[in-house]
Amino acid sequence: IHAHSIHADRVAPYFEIRKMFECLDQPNTCELSMFWGGIYPAAKSKQLRVLLDGDGGDEVVSRGTLRLAELLSSFRWVEYARTLTALSQNIHRSIGDLFLSQSLRPLIPPGFLRVWRLMRWGNRSLWFDRTLLNPRFVNRMRLKEKEACQVTIETRPFRTVKEQHLHELSFGANAYAFEAVYPAAASFGIEHRYPFYDRRLAEFCLSLPSDQKLYRGWTKIVMRRALRNFLPEKVCWRGGKTYLSDDFTYRLSRFEKEAIDRVISQDPSRIEPYYNIEALRRLYQLFLAKPRYES
After folding, report:
1. Interval 208-229: pLDDT, tens
2. Mean pLDDT of 171-191
3. pLDDT tens digits along 111-122
4. Cα separations (Å) of 168 from 57, 80, 91, 197?
5. Which residues have C-beta within 8 Å of that of residue 38, sequence separation ≥ 6?
6. CA gyration radius for the chain?
7. Rounded to an integer, what distance in angstroms lies between the CA atom of residue 80 and that of residue 88?
8. Which of the two ends of the chain, N or C, has the fewest CB atoms closer than 10 A to its terminal CB?
């Protein structure tokens, strides 16, 4: 097996975006620049026809963190304490955070959660800042009604590992990403495949008991056990993973600053029907002062 390196920091986030949209035949919010400007051209130059992607392990095998709630509610407190402490160390999240989000919250009645949510944040969405949008656009898209629906979803947490796992498998974002990746790969004469999403594997993993998903602080334990003779120990038993948000922020500020300046600061006429330009400019100044993915 020969390794091939792609220099991720040399590819602009919106590399050939017009050509990409022509290929997809629609706008798409998936960040495909690394495929379009890096992986696919490199694979085509090596005359590769099929790419196997490791994405989907979290969704198909499942991290099973709601097992904490199952252990707590079934009074298996010794095993719960052991699992909570080990998981905190492995994934670098505080015990308090895991206790509230993965242990206590799933056991609280939805009515109490809704009252607490409305008292603290009201009906506003926690996923996006509505003040960044043009009020007329907000009214035309009826975003306030959608925010109310989002509050209902947020206050009905998953109760079991299997319920959460089924949601992760059937979540619409998975299909949305495939609809973007497949035609993009095809334009380079490449078939992009995701072995984890084989239906037989997904059904098998969904049927597993929760202790085969989270065991004594190790998520996806069934996969770790199955691959321990094939992967280096540091890879097989790593607790977390690298997030690409810092990489995207770096590439955005390095390659796209001129385009963003033109659209936001110089001539915002194209985006003005959708955005509150003054609020957007203030946020952009914060991003320039300290580039962060949150901005």
Report:
1. 999 999 999 999 999 999 999 9
2. 89
3. 888 888 778 777
4. 11, 24, 19, 12
5. 6, 7, 8, 11
6. 22
7. 12
8. N
CA-wise closest residue to 218 among 55, 102, 90: 90
Q: Quote the percentage of the chain above a pLDDT of 70.
A: 97
Tokens for 142, please give them.
């009826």
Region label for 92, one of left (φ > 0), alpha (ψ between -120 and 50) or beta (otherwise): left
Site of tokens 């190790």: 218
Classify residue 158 by its DSSP letter: -
DSSP string of 245-285?
HHHHHHHHHHHSHHHHIIIIII-GGGTTTTB-HHHHHHHHH
| Dist CA 42 CA 183 (whole Å) | 17
Q: What is the mean pLDDT of the chain?
A: 87
User: Both ends of the chain: CA-CA distance in Å?
Assistant: 40
Surface-to-core class of residue 32, CB atoms within 10 Å of its CB (0-12 exposed, 13-18 middle, 19+ buried) = buried
Single-letter code of the amino acid located at 95: I
Q: Is residue 48 over pLDDT 60?
A: yes
- 84 closest CA partner among 74, 157, 96, 75: 96
Say which amino acid occupies 24. Answer: L
pLDDT above 70 (res 242): yes
Is 240 strand, coil or helix? Answer: coil
**Angle at the Cα of 87 from the Cα atoms of 174 and 215, rounded to 5 degrees:** 80
CA distances from 257 to 175, 262, 284, 290 (A): 31, 9, 10, 14
Distance of CA 213 to the CA centre of its chain: 19
pTM of the predicted model as reported, rounded to 2 decimal places: 0.81
